[in-house]
Amino acid sequence: VITGGADVAAEADATDGEEDAAEDSLVPNSEENFVADIANPNRKICVVTTACLPWMTGTAVNPALRAAYLTADRPPGAVTLLVPWVSMEDQHKLFPKGVYFEDEAEQREYVLDWIANKAGMPLAARKIRIEFYYGRYHRDYGSIFSMGSIMNQVPEEQNDICILEEPEHLNWYRFPEIGWLDKFRYVVGIVHTNYVGYAKLEKGQWAVPIVEGLNKMMCKAYCHKVIKLSGTLQIYAPEKECICNVHGVRQVFLDNGREAALKGGEGGGFKKGAYFVGKTLWAKGHRELLGLMKHYRKTMNGQCFPIDIYGNGPDQEDVTATMAKNKLPVTMKGYGDHAELKDYRVFVNPSITEVLCTTVAEALAMGKWVVCPKHPSNDFFAGFASCLQYEDEDEFGAAVHWALHHEPPPLAPEDLRSLSWGAAMERLVESAELDMHGLSMTQGTVKDLKKSRKKARSTFDHAIEKFYYRLGQGEQGDFIRKVFFNGLSVSDQVKYSKNPTDIVSKDSEQSKEAETRAKQALEKKEAEARETEERERKEKEAAAAAEAAAEAAEAAAKSAAAEV
Q: How many CA atoms does the CB half-sphere of 394 hold within 13 Å?
């Protein structure tokens, strides 16, 4: 491995030398191929993400909206959204009940309809291009990973600017092929998820340095610029990373907020109390909520505020059972579109594993109170008048009690605008550029540009990319992914690439078998319920008959006694 790494570094040095020679003839204004320049309508953009609607997770919703907003002033087809297509079995695990697709065309139509109607962007829906790569759901990570070549799904004419939503996640198990920096002229990575936090919580402290090191490798090897949504994230590549919230909220949330402000004298139209929206995972805040509610009840002499929880996920049954066991006033509502939950006054989000919680921004935009921990993931919202942040259990209880009994204050116009996608796109344009030491691209000299370019893709970055490519090749690559990286169903990348049709067919067959088993299990459960109901009915009838007979016997005995 050491020898291989040295060879790779030597190759990278040679490549850097060739690039330096080419750069000498360039001036800053002509260096269009190596600047983000996202605001330029002539640039084509490919947004690649790890989830797809109707899975209402942040890595599906925000990239779809980002891609939609990027279509502004661009011709049709200039923006591509590349998303995963998963088998029917995985769809049943991830999507709302009854919302499933037989093929990519059906799901594409669904996403475009969502952009047009739910996001209120019909023009963007007509202009955006949606492509799919094949993916599989990894149960341990609760995430989708690509299978086989993802680059083959990128149209050749779209190899200009690439935005990798979750660059580390997209590359952990990726099929060994051409790298993103060779495929595209400029690559921006936007990091959404605190995988180090999840690793510590789920696996223990021993997993932290492994995940942290792997994440650094992925971001250094495959991105020119890395944008972290908040300071809660690890350091990936200090020479080319920045912290910036480049997310916004749909217009419908801002409209709901204006509507609530108009009803200010009537309590903002908020008829209900507290609620929470999020994927049903203990790690997503449900564990913290359990402890906080128990403490609240203890301090309030046995009384606790009721809360409705929206969302689906693998821990649904366990969370429901645990809340019931602790006799907490929690109602599990299942899936719910946050934009339709206008009647609630207080949004409670105790999660400390988030990077930047989209639902917090949405709740603030709707004019609600938000109660959340004082944490780097919530720094962006700290100055909002209706955001109550707590540091301990007692402060949580005080914040919730206050919010439930007071009307939320209206947000300042500048705060409202900061939540919009218009403001988010401005932040993205600025943060996606290379670090020119405070100079703009037109002010910088060729020397400044070369220095920034070397930081964006150094010799070491080349070496990492080549090493990881070689490590993942052939059967040994599949073995390493499976044994050392806990790849499970997503480890057979090379095997899949050799015969994708058979594997997709097998997945389809397994999905049908799983669907059949699920249907049979449901039918069995319903039959058992009917049998139980029938048995209870007969037992009630028998008990009633016995009671009637006893009463008749008692009446006859009294009558006989009276005659005597």
A: 0
pLDDT digit string, tens, across residues 243-279? 999 999 999 999 999 988 887 655 557 999 999 998 8
Question: How far apart are alpha carbons 518 and 537 in whole angstroms?
Answer: 28
DSSP labels for 204-244?
Answer: -GGGHHHHHHHHHHHHHHH-SEEEESSTTSPPS-GGGEEE-
Structure tokens at 425: 């796109």
Q: How many CA atoms lie within 13 A of 258 on its CB side?
A: 8
Q: Are 83 and 165 in contact (CB under 8 A)?
A: no
- In total, the chain counts a number of residues equal to 564
Asked if 92 and 519 count as a contact pair (C-beta separation under 8 A), the reply is: no
DSSP class per residue in 24-78: TT--GGG-GGGS--TT-TTS-EEEE-S--TTS-SHHHHHHHHHHHHHTTTS-TTS
Q: What is the strand order of the sheet 225-228 is part of?
A: 143-146, 129-138, 79-85, 45-48, 161-165, 186-191, 225-228, 241-243
Cβ atoms < 10 Å from Cβ of 168: 25
| Alpha-carbon gap, residue 292 to 391, rounded angstroms | 12
Look at the alpha carbons of 203, 206, 212, 214 in this order and tell me if their dihedral is positive or negative: negative
**Taking a C-beta distance cutoff of 8 angstroms, is the pair 506, 89 a contact?**
no
Residues 6+ apart with CB under 8 A from 459: 9, 12, 13, 16
- Burial of 50: CB neighbours in 10 Å, binned 0-12, 13-18, 19+: buried
Could you identify the residue written with the tokens 């402000």? 261
Side chain identity, residue 24: D
Q: Each residue of 114-153: pLDDT tens digit?
A: 999 999 999 999 999 999 999 999 887 889 999 999 999 9
Instruction: Please give the pLDDT value at position 158.
Output: 84
65 closest CA partner among 224, 252, 244, 222: 252
